[in-house]
Specification:
The structure is a single chain. By secondary structure, this protein is an all-alpha fold. It contains 10 helices and 2 strands; from the N terminus they run H-H-H-H-H-H-H-E-E-H-H-H. It has a two-stranded antiparallel sheet with strand order 1-2. The longest helix has 38 residues. It starts with a helix and ends in a 24-residue tail after the last helix.
Length: 395
């Protein structure tokens, strides 16, 4: 069908209802759609035009651009989907191998480190046929990016598009074997929202792992390695973290209610909005940690080292600061009673060992300087010391 034939048919059908201009516009719209989207090409393949029509000066070959574009896109989608499935099969085979190894008591200890290796295997973005952008991202974007933590000697390659189904299977596997996790190596593992409540995790290595929103209620984490781990919003109520290493960890919004953190290393940890109510932090090392807006109600911080710690806006009601070191700590807007009275705050800080160069509200500092001026003496400044089992860089 030529353009002129189409125009005459539109006039015959719609001429009584449309003006000539409207008929011409409708004709152009239908013709361009018919030609550009390949319908004319397909039609002429089945009903070739005559030689006379081809010789007509107004005839031009139908456009094949759309057909070629669709063909190329389908081919690219096939390549992207095949590449994605290849990586998925590889990850699933690795995960199945880990699960088999865990089922044997002889190989279980060596199998735990392989969980993180399987979770960190790269995978392209899953292509969606109706989303062309996903197809191109799946083929052309890099599979990993590099991350290096302070506690790591070598950087880690993190997948840009992790295979979440495989990760979830391995998380459930860890939960299923939680009674065998004592001393296990789960460094760099993805353990988001896992339920390990009540488990014995003594000396377990969780360094650089992701335990955000995990249930760790009443767990035994003595001497566990959690350096640079992500435990944001995790539940550690009643947990035993004595002598554990949490240096540089993200502990924002964590519930440590009634937990034991005797001699625990929390150097440079992010503890904003965390809850330490009724917890025991005797001798804990919190040098340069961020404790802004944390809740320490009736916590025991005897002999704790909080040099350079940020305690701005923290709740310090009933806290035991006996012989605690607070030199260079930030205590602005911290409070010790509902009325935010300076007298209550001063009474709470009075038993501590030093407040050398600490940032206090002016009224609180005035009361303390009058009652115990030696708190601000440089002689009270102590050298930085961390027991050997808590060693961690103090950057």
């Amino acid at each position: 069908m030529s353009r002129q034939e189409l125009l005459s048919r539109i006039h015959s059908y719609w001429g009584q209802h449309l003006t000539n201009r409207q008929c011409g516009f409708l004709c152009r719209f239908i013709w361009y759609a018919y030609d550009w989207f390949g319908f004319r090409l397909i039609w002429e393949k089945f009903c070739p035009p005559s030689a006379q029509k081809k010789g007509d000066g107004n005839y031009y070959p139908p456009s094949s651009l759309f057909i070629w574009s669709i063909s190329i896109y389908v081919a690219l989608f096939g390549i992207a989907n095949g590449r994605y499935q290849k990586h998925v099969d590889r990850i699933e085979n690795r995960a199945n191998s880990v699960i088999v190894l865990l089922s044997s008591s002889d190989s279980r200890k060596d199998a735990f480190p392989l969980i993180a290796d399987a979770q960190l295997m790269p995978c392209p973005l899953e292509p969606q046929f109706t989303q062309p952008v996903s197809v191109f991202r799946s083929i052309f974007l890099p599979l990993t990016h590099t991350v290096k933590m302070d506690s790591q000697k070598t950087p880690t390659k993190i997948p840009n598009y992790p295979y979440e189904e495989g990760r979830e299977v391995l998380r459930k596997t860890v939960v299923a074997y939680k009674s065998f996790l004592r001393g296990a190596n789960l460094s760099k593992a993805d353990l988001i929202k896992v339920d390990l409540g009540g488990a014995d995790l003594t000396e377990t290595n969780f360094s650089n792992s992701n335990l955000s929103e995990a249930d760790l209620i009443d767990t035994q984490l003595q001497k566990a390695d959690l350096e640079d781990a992500n435990l944001e919003k995790a539940l550690l109520l009643g947990a035993n973290l004595d002598q554990a290493a949490l240096g540089g960890a993200n502990l924002q919004g964590v519930f440590f209610t009634a937990a034991s953190l005797h001699l625990t290393n929390l150097v440079r940890a992010n503890l904003r909005n965390s809850v330490f109510a009724y917890s025991k932090l005797v001798g804990a090392v919190l040098i340069n940690s961020d404790l802004g807006e944390a809740d320490f109600e009736k916590a025991d911080l005897t002999d704790a080292n909080l040099m350079g710690a940020n305690l701005a806006n923290a709740n310090l009601k009933g806290v035991n600061f006996t012989d605690a070191f607070l030199s260079e700590a930030v205590l602005t807007n911290a409070y010790a009673d509902e009325a935010h009275s300076p007298e209550a705050m001063a009474a709470t800080l009075l038993p501590c060992a030093t407040l050398y160069k600490a940032q206090l509200d002016s009224r609180v500092e005035e009361i303390l300087r009058r009652k115990k001026p030696e708190l601000f003496s440089e002689a009270k400044q102590i050298p930085v010391f961390i027991p050997s089992f808590l060693e961690f860089p103090l950057k």
